[in-house]
Design goal:
alpha/beta; 2 domains; eight-stranded parallel β-barrel; about 10% strand; globular; binds iron/sulfur cluster
Length: about 475
């Protein structure tokens, strides 16, 4: 089955033509369907459609076929059911983060899309909505015959309407020409908020915002919504990270409202690492949404004042919404299509995975600038360090989506003081990033390494303290 699936992607161009031919036949077949009745026609058609699609595409019968927009690679074969582009965990050889026995479905989809149109980046695929579980097992051919459009949603219109004076400090910094600095803090394995506040205190006045991770790496910690609210209550501008791994759309929308009610002003929408990477590999992963559909829903809540269901909110949240990007793993430069989708879906700031390879970033930024995406969302590049070459090599081998070039590992491995050399390399990367057109800031990360991260920010001479206007902290 897997071999036939790959064959279909290799022949995406021919299969796409067949699909277009079939779509043109639809008006001819429509009277037959009307005569039979929609239900009876579907009952006749569905077994044929199921058998053909299972053979050709490993079809999972989601009932909302998007093969014509994904180079004939069925996104339902992705373990995270990503419908709008690859996750950030694709392995360097193009295999899947979750199941390394198979190629990433979206690496395949990118190749299939290139076969359909060589200039595929000039024709970005439509934003695909989250799966409607009610359609599982239904025929999509019947809907094509009946003249219904392919599933695609319209992006939210317009920019944020909030007055400049009411914007949070992080959004104000992003809207200025300042080079912004954010830092990642992991919530503790503790019911005591002091453990979190002690971590955050190291960055007082040094950063424009503190990201609060949401079960990073699939590991359980204090919830990110609670940790973000605690930081906000103590005067820190927090970015509440929301992953799609653990909650469905009902729970996530409830959490967004709750976070806004508690004063959180910034959210970062992510798909999330798979549960197999964390300390509860036996857990059921949810992935009801992917990051793009989450962004779209969050923007709908803010801009249109409604839930994904269309039900009106009494008081909409007012949030600065961001997303992630990873230019350092396959399909590399082609990932700009996924970035563009995130921006169209509503992201106004982007934070990337660790950048240890400036050339890969520059390749990506060329495409970003060509499409003017850096003017539509602030690009904040991830940076960081670890205590030794051994720790860095372990991270490169075991943390999905992290790429560390061999020369950097060798450089740190040769140093007498590896911790110091790692810090030096990080500061060099930060300075180089500050000179790249379109890079609006850095996002400093390092697991339980807060003291070194604070030193790096200070020694880089960046951030609010260096600019002379640290954000006010009101404990
Ligand atoms: S690497 Fe990510 S996007 Fe690709 S198939 Fe695996 S889970 Fe899906």
């Amino acid at each position: 089955m897997y071999t036939v699936r790959l064959w279909s992607v290799r022949h995406a161009r021919g299969l796409r033509r067949l699909y277009v031919f079939f779509s043109r036949l639809a008006p001819v077949l429509a009277p037959v369907v009307r005569w039979l009745g929609s239900r009876r026609a579907e009952a006749l058609l569905q077994p044929v459609e199921r058998a053909a699609k299972r053979l050709m595409f490993d079809c999972r019968e989601c009932g909302q076929c998007v093969l014509s927009a994904t180079g004939m690679a069925c996104p339902m074969n992705c373990p995270k059911e990503m419908r709008n582009g690859p996750c950030g965990g694709v392995r360097a050889d193009g295999t899947c983060e979750v199941d390394p026995r198979m190629r990433c479905v979206w690496v395949e989809a990118t190749e299939g899309t290139k076969r359909v149109a060589a200039d595929h980046l000039a024709h970005p695929t439509p934003l695909l909505p989250a799966i409607d579980a009610r359609n599982a097992g239904r025929s999509t051919w019947i809907r094509v015959i009946e003249g219904h459009p392919e599933p695609a949603f319209q992006p939210p219109v317009g920019e944020r309407r909030t007055a400049q004076s009411k914007l949070g400090p992080f959004e104000q910094a992003c809207r200025s020409s300042d080079f912004v600095v954010t830092v990642e803090v992991g919530p503790p394995d503790s019911a005591d908020p002091q453990a979190l506040l002690q971590r955050a205190a190291r960055f007082q006045g040094l950063v424009d915002a503190i990201n609060v991770t949401d079960g990073a790496g699939g590991n359980c910690h204090m919830s990110s919504v609670a940790a973000s609210a605690i930081l906000v209550a103590h005067g820190y501008p927090a970015v509440y990270q929301i992953t799609c791994r653990d909650r469905n759309r009902i729970a996530i929308q409830g959490d967004i409202l709750g976070a806004a009610a508690l004063g959180v002003q910034n959210i970062l929408c992510l798909t999330g690492d798979d549960v197999s990477q964390g300390d509860h590999p036996q857990a059921k992963a949810v992935f009801d949404l992917d990051a793009v559909s989450l962004l779209h829903i969050a923007r709908g809540m803010c801009d249109q004042g409604q839930f994904a269901s269309g039900r009106k909110l009494e008081t909409p949240p007012d949030l600065f919404i961001g997303a992630t990007a990873n230019p350092f793993v396959p399909p590399y430069r082609d990932r700009v299509a996924n970035l563009e989708k995130k921006i169209v879906a509503g992201a106004r700031f982007i934070q990337t995975q660790f950048c240890f390879d400036l050339q890969l970033l520059e390749d990506f930024m060329q495409e970003v600038r060509r499409r003017d995406l850096h003017r539509q969302a602030k690009l904040i590049v991830g940076v960081g360090t670890l205590g030794s070459a051994k720790a860095l090599a372990w991270m490169a081998a075991h943390v999905p989506g992290v790429h560390v070039p061999a020369p950097l590992l060798e450089r740190i491995g040769r140093a007498g003081d590896q911790r110091l050399e790692g810090k030096r390399a990080c500061i060099e990367i930060i300075r180089a990033l500050a000179a790249i057109e379109g890079v609006a800031g850095v996002h400093v990360m390092g697991h339980r390494n807060e003291d070194v991260l604070a030193e790096i920010i200070r020694e880089s001479g960046l951030g609010p303290a260096a600019r002379g206007h640290p954000p006010a902290i009101q404990p």
